[in-house]
Write a structure and sequence with these properties.
- It comes from Myroides albus.
- This is DUF2971 domain-containing protein.
- With 233 residues, the chain is an alpha+beta fold.
- It has one domain.
- Helices cover 28% and strands 25% of the residues.
- The protein has 7 helices and 11 strands.
- Strands 1, 2, 3, 4, 5, 8, 9, 10 and 11 form a 9-stranded mixed sheet that branches.
- Helix 2 packs across helix 3.
- The chain is globular, with a radius of gyration of 19 Å.
Length: 233
């Protein structure tokens, strides 16, 4: 379940709008399983994921000089932290459609911070934390390491277009092999506020999504993205 953490920054307004862009297969997996996938942090494309900025690393090296296990502990954590990424934005993002949907058959889930908090189920074996990502200069700026989740809540400025908020879970105590990631229980009706269909999709695709949700007994508002709407002259 979701657990507040005073060290982790989160937008104060629970109505802050967040998005998750995905293809149809991942959306169906979410609906069929009532589980949200969380990826192992060291499986992300960004090789800096879960690492430290240069000023912080220099301090950690000094600490680790007489205690090598200290640095090894942080290296191992990248395999034990799993993440679900969401995009903070009041409106749709053209860039997110381009990056996270491979063809015109993608879709986007619209939710809010408050809905995401409520959706994380009590029966999950590990607690979930939610935090907003900070974008910094890794050569100059310091990443604090008082909280074990901090390395996973900082990214390089090159990624600031992502405007990311993350669900984080530490699975080290589960005593199980985590390959690509894990699935956690979620309340789908709390999680999803509205669904947007890819702006380049055909009409049949929206109809298909509606039929699939009906068969699975879900009732969400479904709209086609208006990013490709007719130009008014």
């Amino acid at each position: 379940m979701y657990v507040p953490n005073k060290n982790i920054k989160l937008p104060a307004d629970p109505n802050t709008v967040i998005w998750k862009y995905m293809d149809l297969s991942k959306f169906l997996d979410l609906l069929l399983s009532n589980k949200m996938f969380m990826s192992r942090s060291d499986k992300f494309e960004d090789q800096y994921e879960g690492t430290f900025s240069e000023p912080t690393f220099e301090e950690i090296k000094r600490i680790s000089h007489d205690n090598p296990a200290f640095l090894d502990q942080y290296k191992q954590r990248r395999k034990n932290i799993v993440i679900s990424s969401w995009h903070i934005n009041e409106y749709e993002s053209f860039a997110m459609w381009q990056i996270f949907t491979k063809n015109s058959e993608g879709l986007a889930i619209q939710s809010t911070i408050g809905r995401l908090q409520k959706a994380l189920a009590v029966e999950n074996r590990a607690d979930q934390f939610i935090g907003e990502v900070h974008y910094i200069d890794y050569k100059k700026e310091y990443i604090p390491f008082e909280d074990d989740f901090f390395p996973f809540l900082f990214k390089r400025k090159s990624f600031q277009y992502e405007k990311e908020v993350r669900v984080l879970t530490d699975v080290s105590h589960l005593d199980k092999c985590v390959n690509e990631g894990i699935k956690i229980n979620v309340d789908i009706n709390h999680l999803i506020e509205k669904i947007y269909i890819h702006p380049k999709s055909e009409n049949w695709y929206k109809k298909l999504v509606l039929e699939l949700m009906e068969k699975l007994h879900f009732q969400f508002d479904v709209e086609k993205s208006d990013l490709e709407s007719d130009i008014l002259i």
